[in-house]
Amino acid sequence: MKTFILAIALLGSQWAEAQSLKPGFDPKEYLDLLAMFDRGRDTPWNKDKVLPISEGCRLVYRSPQFGLENRWDLWLRGDSVGVISIRGTVGNEESWLENFYCAMVPATGILQLNDSTLFKYKLAEDYKACIHAGWLVGLASLAPDVVREIKVYTKKGIRNFIITGHSQGGSLSLLMTAYLRYLDPQTWDGKSLVFKTYSSAPSKPGNLYFVYDYDYITRDGWGLRVVNTRDWVPESPFSLQTLQDLNDINPFKKESFFSKAFLGRDYTELDSSSRQAEETFQLDLGHAVYLKIKKYLPQLVEPKYVPSMAYTPAGVAVILPPYPGYDKEFVGSAMNIMEHHGLKAYYQLVLKDYNIAP
Q1: Where are the alpha helices (DSSP H) in the chain?
Q2: pLDDT per position as a tens digit, 86-128
Q3: How many domains does the chain contain in total?
Q4: Residue 56: which domain range?
C-alpha cells in the first residue's frame, strides 16, 4: 500500500512539473521575459533602468558571443522552467548586417560556417519553406551551444523550456524553436521536452510555407508573437509576393482563363515587373550583404538563394494596441526610431492592456 501511494505521489509530482508551462499568453510570464531581455543587454545593470523581475528567476548561464555578435542567456524560474533568452541586435555593423542579409534560403539544408563547421538544419517539413539567410547564420552560430546546455539541464530534471527573444532575438527565437522541435528526440536521450515560445517584436522570418509549418508545430498556443502596433520592426524585412510564390494549382500563377479574364494584357507586365523588383531586392540584400559579412566571417560559404522575397509573420499574434495617452508618453521620430520598439514601451503596454499594477 505504501509503495502504491508513493508511486501515485511520484506520478503527481511529474504531472505537476509537466504542467508548469501552459499554452497561451500569460502577461505576467511575458513581463518577466522582458526583464530578462533588459538584463541581457550590453548596458550597465543600473537598478534604476532595469525592469523588475519575479523572485526565483536566476541567470544560470551566459554564452560567449558567436557569429555576428550573437549571444544567449539561460535563466531558471522558481518552478523549474528554463528560459532560453536570445539577445537582440547590438550597436555594431556585424549585428546589423545579420538583419539586412535577408535573401531567402531553403528551410532545410546545410550551411557551411567555416572550413571545419557544417551546420545541418531542418526547420520545416514543406520543401517550399524558405527562411531569412542572416538569421540562419545566427541560428547556426548559437544552436550547438543551446543544445549542449539543454542537455546539461535535462540531466538536472528540467523538462520545460521557454524560447524567447526581443527584436533580432525574437526573430531568432522563431528559427530556434523550429530547429529544436525538429531535432531527433534521442538528442535528449529520448526524453520528451516541452517548448513554449514568446517571440517579442520579431521581424518576419520566412515565406508563407515556413510560417504554415511553424504555426502548425506550435499550434494550440505554444508559439506566440507579441507586437506593439506602433513598432516598425515587425513590418520588416521588405516583402514582395510574385506569381511564382503561389501554389502551383493557383489559377493566377499561369496565364490562364482566370488571369486573362481579370488581368487581361496586364498579366505579363505585372509578372515581369514584380520579378524584376524581386531580383533587385535579392541582389542588394543577398550577395552584396554577404560580401560585407565576409569581413567578419571570412570562411562562410555563400548559400544558394531561393528566388523569393515573400516574407510573412509567424506565430499566434498577441497585439498590444496603444492605450489613451500612449502617443504622448512614447513619441517616435526620425531621430528616435526605436521608441516604440523598446522594452519600456512593450512593458507599459502590457501593464495597461492587462490592468496589471506595476
Answers
A1: 2-18, 27-40, 93-100, 133-154, 168-182, 208-217, 257-263, 266-282, 288-293, 326-329, 343-353
A2: 999 998 999 999 999 999 999 999 999 999 999 999 999 999 9
A3: 1
A4: 25-353
